[in-house]
Write a structure and sequence with these properties.
InterPro entries: SutA_RBD (IPR049191). This protein is of the alpha+beta class and 105 residues long. Helix content is 31%, strand content 16%.
Length: 105
């Protein structure tokens, strides 16, 4: 049996019912200012931000980029022209009835 997908409406209703149950059991909800939950003792947690290391120098790769662009230019100029395929054409008689097929280039 396939489990039906939960919709946003179902999730919203479930969260509302859980909040209602919490409040009915004399639970209290505290209002917290935006951004406070990410602070530790009023400061940002600097151990996970990732700016602790010094800036690294980048390796210039201009010659690699130039080689790639040169290959792209060579690739577009060396492609052979596209050959047109022959098409079938119907030959009709004077009364509009088909007589035969011919190949036309």
């Amino acid at each position: 049996m396939i489990k039906p997908k939960t919709t946003k409406r179902d999730t919203r209703e479930e969260l509302e019912s859980l909040v209602d149950q919490f409040i009915k059991k004399n639970g209290t909800i505290q209002q917290i200012n935006m951004g406070e939950s990410g602070l530790i003792d009023g400061k940002y947690n600097m151990s996970h931000i990732g700016f602790n290391e010094p800036k690294q120098d980048r390796t210039p790769l201009n010659h690699v980029v130039a080689a790639i662009q040169q290959r792209k230019q060579n690739k577009t100029t060396t492609t052979p022209p596209i050959k047109k395929r022959p098409k079938k054409k119907v030959i009709y008689d004077d009364f509009g009835d088909p007589i035969r097929w011919i190949w036309e280039e």
